[in-house]
Structure formats: structure tokens, C-alpha cells
Input
Amino acid sequence: MALSDLDRGMVLTTIEEYDQLGRDAFLKRYGYHEARDYFIIHNGHRYDSKAIAGVAHRGVGGRALRAAEFSGGAATVGRTLGHLGFLVTQRQDASPTETFLDKVRTLDTAVSNGRPKRHQPLTLLWALGRAAHREERLVPWNVTRAEISALITEFGLDGDRPNPEYPVLKLTHFGLWTLPDHQEPPRSTGSAPLGWMNRNQPVSGLRAWVYDLMTENEKVRSQAIAYLLSTYFPDVDQNALLTRVGLGATVAEPPLPGRRPTTVRRIIRDNALSRLIKSLHDHTCQICGIQLLLPRGPYAEGAHIRPLGQPHDGHDVPGNLLCLCPNDHVLFDQGATIIKDDLTVINRLTGEQRGPLRTVPGHDIDPQYLAYHRNTAGTY
Ligand SMILES: [Zn+2]
Output
């Protein structure tokens, strides 16, 4: 008879009752005060976490716990509900989206020779790829271990050891991951973790609220991916990485012709990275704001600011990509449109401003590519 025996079903049943009664009546019936510190965020609503946990205890002990019978803090209620996949937060106005992106931006990664380690980012990308395809959220340890080890070997820093138990445990204690059958897994330090994981063979994966967000909200998923790529993998073949974790083509898009006629026949490159950037922008042109809607869905083009290939040698990275409509893509490629470092869009033929470049969180343009474009576009 303990809070740690709660299961997700008991909590969901209690949330239903809370919804039916309304907050005041629910708290009054079970003798709880309004929560000041910790809230469950579920389906866009906020619930007093201590009251929910105490009442859900009926499912374990036959009766609801009274408020005075247990502590409602992070160490008890927060941890228990967190392991059951709920988002528990101190912020009354927190949403899963903000909470998730905040966490992705504040990963506590070790540093090696001045560069952040990639174990946690790779583990997250692997899980995001699974979520994008709605694959099983919880994965047995032997599979998790093999797949993340391979990713670390392939895309980690030089000399990184493939030790996926560290990122899995680190992300668990950080509130993004869960080992649902183990509420007190070891910390991610020392030599204990691997032995513990091999002995216990836990299933593990993203917390349910994270997984749900990642399967349902492609835009937030793209924001997280773009952030991870630009922060941790600046010198990695990002297309190869995205393809490797199954994030190469998650969006159903109209098939592109390999070439289409313009004044110069030009190849439209459409790879994993360009699809990611287009998804971040909802396929809306960053210059004119138009979203072309085709029968099969919205259409935009990924435009490299500094072209790839000889003689330009531009990089295939988010900072060198724009999401443009076909017209603005041609105008930009041919140098009729240029973009200043402050992201003002200029019609070079008339000198008029066309307004600021539209931007979205998670996609920053690197000014070095804009400068290259201003200096060379239209001359090749
Ligand atoms: Zn446009």
C-alpha cells in the first residue's frame, strides 16, 4: 500500500472523476487544498497532482489517502506520476510543448575537448524516429542497447565509448525517459549502470507525454530535431544521420519531379534536411508568407543559400537552408532577391525592402551564407 504501486489506469480514472466533478467539488469531496506547487498537465488541462495521486490510491489500498497522510512534493508524487508517463510541473502555465522544448534545450551533456557529448542527443533522435513512425514506445534493453550503441559508434565524437546506459539513465532522471518497471534506477555515473541494466533488462522509452507529443505534433518534433542537429552535430552529415534514425521521410509529400524547366534547368534537391526545414515552416515561404496548397498537401522548396557542390561548396545544414515558394526560390537563386544580415529581404532590382525574412524558433540562418549569396548570386 504505497504511492509507488499506482498505475496509469488508476490515475486516468481519477482524472476522469476530477473532470466530471470539477476542481472545487473534487478537492472538497476528498479534503484537499488547491495545489500551489505541482500540477499534472494532461490533455491540455491542469490538475492538482497531490490530490490526484491521493485519490488514485483507492486503486491500491481501497481508500483515498488524506492530504496529511503523505507528502506531495517532487520526490514522492512527482516521481511516481512522472514514471507513469504524466507531465508533472511546477509551472501552472506549462504546456507539454514548452516543457519538452525547454528540456531539449537544457540537456546536461558532458563536454569532451570543448564539444558537447552526443549520447543523449543520439538517444533522443533515435526515439523521435521511432515516435515519428508510431513504433512501440517501450523497447527491451537488448534492442535499445544495440541500436543506440551503433549510433554512438557511427555519429558520436571521436573516442566516444558506446555506452547507451548512460544517456538512457540520464534522460530518465531528467524527466524525458522512463523505465516504467523501475522507479529508482541507478544514477548515470560510475560503473554500476551497465551491470544493473544487464541484470534487470528493463524496457524503456520516452515518457508517455513526450511520445504522444512527438507522434502528434510534427512541427514541435521538427523544432527539437533542428535544435539537436545544429547544437550537437554541426560537422556531421545531417542527412545521413536523419535517414539513419528514420527521420528521412516521415512526411507524405507530393512526389517531386527531379528536374523542372525554368530559365536554367535546375535540380531541386529534396532530402531529409530540406524536408525538416519545410516542416518547421509549415511549408510557408519565408519571403512572401504564401503556403501553396496542392491536392496532396502543402508544397514548398528547400533553398540552399550558398549552393552545394562545386564551385560553391555550401554546406547542407539548417543554417544554409530557406523554405521558399517556387517563385521566390528562382528570384533568390538568380540574385534578384538578397537578404541582409539583419534578415531584411531586398529586391535588388529596385532596391526596395520586401520586409523581414519570416523565421520560426529552432531554425536560425547563418549570416556567413547570406554574405556569400549577396556577393555571388547572379554571377553564376
Ligand atoms: Zn514566396
About this structure: The longest helix spans residues 141-155.
